[in-house]
From TrEMBL:
Domain GmrSD restriction endonucleases C-terminal: start-end pairs: 107-208
MF terms in GO: endonuclease activity
Signal peptide: 1-32
InterPro entries in UniProt: GmrSD_C
Domain of life assignment: Bacteria
Provenance organism: Nocardiopsis codii
Keywords of the record: Endonuclease, Hydrolase, Nuclease, Signal
Pfam families cross-referenced by the UniProt entry: GmrSD_C
Protein name listed in UniProt: HNH endonuclease
Amino acid sequence: MTPFPRAVSRVIATAAAATLAAVLGWAAPAAADHVLPPNIPSTSAAQTQLNSLTVAAKGPQTGYDRSLFPHWNVVDSPCTARQVVLLRDGHDVVTNDDCQPTSGSWYSAFDDSWVYDQPSDISVDHQVPLSEAWKTGAADWTTSQRADFANDVTSSQLWLATPSSNGSKGDKDPSQWMPTNTTVHCDYVKSWINVKYVYDLTVTSTEKSSIQGTIDSAC
């Protein structure tokens, strides 16, 4: 299986938020904006993508290890994927010469919470968790393909999240866990659909039904 037939090109921005905006077309956020990841599809596009996903039972967890998905790699020297997301979706972010944010503010849409000035207090969550991907197709990928997935800063695969909300989510799919912030439910499932679509991952019948219910009620 070729897992990336629809993946977008990984054009990565340089170390400053202004350069991110210039290179990738992301607008610099106003101070009061709540920034979500880029490229969340429209409701109609997400519906079409959901309809096209392969429905199958999840595979086994056997053989899974996070190290099989090399993550927080350098994606544009010296910036790692985590650092790019902190710049991309943060506000007034200041970095050192190694691209590490030293101050700023970050919004966790999962629980409608802000983190101020302490980048270590904000997580970068894989929207489709690594172990979920393993069980729905990624077990057959190469390590290089799994690294692309784990460091994808151009799709909506990487979200800012408080450690508590990130921990609560774990490796659960939307039939098992949804953000406590109900206002983000529509964008959350549209993002989930799109990541699974881009990477040709499967969904279970329960997962698909739950996502469809959220689209119908929240979008």
